[in-house]
Amino acid sequence: MMAAALQWLFSRGYNGAVETEAHTPARRTLRDIQTHYRQGAILSMVTCYDFASAQLLDGCGIDMLLVGDSLGNTMLGFETTLPVTLEDMIRHGAAVRRGAPGAFIVVDMPYMTCQISHEEALRNAGRVMQETGCDAVKVEGGQAMAPTIRRLTDAGCPVMGHIGLTPQSIHALGGYRLQGKEDEAAKRLMADAVAVQDAGAFSIVIELVEQRLSREITESLSIPTIGIGSGPGCSGQVQVLHDVLGLFPDRHLRHARRYAEVGETIRNAIRSYAEDVRTGRFP
Ligand code: KIV
Fold first, then answer.
1. Residue 171's domain spans which residues?
2. For the chain, what is the domain count?
3. Is 277 part of any domain?
4. How many Å lie between the centroid of ligand 1 and the Cα of residue 66?
């Protein structure tokens, strides 16, 4: 009887932890993600940056929410992700956790928060984990970042890697363009992926990498790859929420697919509201 009850609880995502709040729903865990991957499921991830969106997304069947440092572009209006600070990530990460208590949430480590020393990386990732209540951090970079990723994972901090087009290195890469087209670059990307996996990462984002190469990398690894602009051969896909929802009506990216025209819906709603106020129809 007891065993059956426990089996039911585990099947609902219960991870053995004692919940402290009466209404806390079963929370998706790293084990759930790993089990899904081993069962051959294609993993889905989408970015999320605020409380209201998190509330809407929680329970929609998404495997992981990413509090990406792309919030520098989508929420703060910067051209690159470089101005995003650790405090920005903590503030947004904690808001997403409040909105989506059941979700598996990954928070990006922003520019230069993991590069200066292992000690700083540990301190900064520790703050993100403690102050946001998220489940993992994401660190950009391949072989050069592997020793840092090893220190974080040894310290019990789950890490998602990120290779290919790494937006924090946009100036060094010389722009947003497909990665791994030449033989040398392809070999380097494969070595990056293996180094990040061997350092203990549980998953790797592969951004804007030539399709055949991203499939080859995926087939060589025993952890899931999450692609963006890297074709269908990855273990999962990630998209920026604003692109999926059409929140920027004028932005059209080749690797994104719009599932709604929320930007236009918002504009129409606000036009109607303004008109109603002007004409006395509201209140
Ligand atoms: O910051 C972000 O949104 C990302 C995704 C594009 C993978 O890193």
1. 2-269
2. 1
3. no
4. 7
Residue 207 annotated as catalytic: yes
Q: Which of 205, 208, 248 to mutate to test the pocket of ligand 1 (most atoms within 8 A of CB)?
A: 205
pLDDT tens sequence across 70-99: 999 999 999 999 999 999 999 999 999 999
pLDDT digits (tens, 9 = 90+) for 239-250: 999 999 999 999
Any domain includes 201: yes
Q: Are 47 and 70 in contact (CB under 8 A)?
A: yes
DSSP for 39-80 reads: TTPPEEEEE--SHHHHHHHTTSS-SEEEE-TTHHHHTT--SS
What's residue 26's pLDDT?
A: 84
Determine, yes or no, domain membership for 282. Answer: no
Could you say which DSSP state residue 144 is in?
A: G
User: pLDDT band for position 24 (50/70/90)?
Assistant: low
Secondary structure letter of residue 19 according to DSSP: P
What is the number of the ligand 1 atom nearest to the C-alpha of 167?
8
Residue 279 covered by a domain: no
Query: Looking at residue 180, which CATH number applies to its domain?
Result: 3.20.20.60
- The binding-site residues of ligand 1, defined as CB within 6 angstroms of any ligand atom, are 47, 66, 68-70, 108, 162, 205, 207, 228, 238, 240
